[in-house]
Design a protein that fits this description.
Blueprint (H helix, E strand, L loop, with lengths): L3 H7 L4 H12 L5 H15 L1
Length: 47
């Protein structure tokens, strides 16, 4: 039978995942709400 606590102690995240996380967090990525906010502001400016 598996001992989950013991298995969790052995767990090590893959280096690629750490690298991807760093790249995502260090970049200023826009999400849908950011894009919508920007569009609404531009629409209001033109009215």
């Amino acid at each position: 039978m598996l001992d989950f606590e013991e298995e969790l102690k052995k767990f090590r995240p893959s280096p690629e995942i750490d690298e991807i996380e760093d790249n995502v967090y260090n970049n200023n990525l826009s999400d849908v709400t950011d894009l919508m906010d920007e569009m609404l502001k531009k629409m209001q400016e033109h009215q």
